[in-house]
Amino acid sequence: MNESALYYEEEDSFWQGVKDCVPTLLGYLSIGFAAGVVEKTAGLSIAEIALISLILYAGSGQFIAAGMIAAAHPISAIVFTIFFVNSRHLLLSAAIAPYFRKQTIGQNILTGALLTDETFGVAINHAQHKKQLNYKWMLGLNITAYLNWVLANIAGGFFGQWIPTPEKYGLDFALPAMFIGLLILQIMSHKKYFVDIIVALSAVLIVVISSFLFPGSAGVIIATIAAATIGMVIERWR
């Protein structure tokens, strides 16, 4: 086996995926902890908190579920609301799918089931100048994030009785801070500052305007599609 093949195998191994997930762990731990606190406040037991984090595995979805459970909303309303809020994952999956065309259906299902905003951000950044992503690397990335999220939820549920207001300690800003870091790293890696700035400004403007016209997170989805289209058009015309 030549040196380039060895480098590729090490760069895209399962354990490398685990290592590449480390920068996102603070976001998972803090937001997961806050979610556990909120779920405990909503009346869920530790076992129920563990179960909802294992099955639902969605930060915004779990916050919504906890609030709606506490308000005694029907299950159908909870399911519909969470589905709508997390419909952005259809876009994430569509964007990352081309990098896994050579994988089996079962592998793609597992990759999609464990895909989150954070692991998507790491994967897209890792996919720069690559035609495909290694399944083992993605599995290491996803599983590390998944386990940390579940443990953080359980810890939040356990210690939640002593932390009634997690936002007081800045835990609610950990997730945005993590995404800002990932965005900066991605911008610096391909150095297309003009396009990136135009896309970012377009996304902000569109999401603000859309928030007055559409409910919930629909504005975010619209802004994502529109800003990405603007960036593509600019690159084609340059």
From TrEMBL:
Record key words, sorted: Cell membrane, Membrane, Transmembrane, Transmembrane helix, Transport
Localization terms from the record: Cell membrane
Entry keyword annotation includes Transport: yes
Annotated TM spans: none
Bilayer topology: Multi-pass membrane protein
One Gene Ontology cellular component: plasma membrane
Pfam families: AzlC
GO biological process: L-valine transmembrane transport
Top-level division of the source organism's lineage: Bacteria
UniProt similarity note: Belongs to the AzlC family.
PANTHER family, per the entry: INNER MEMBRANE PROTEIN YGAZ
Protein name: Uncharacterized protein
Originating organism: Peribacillus asahii
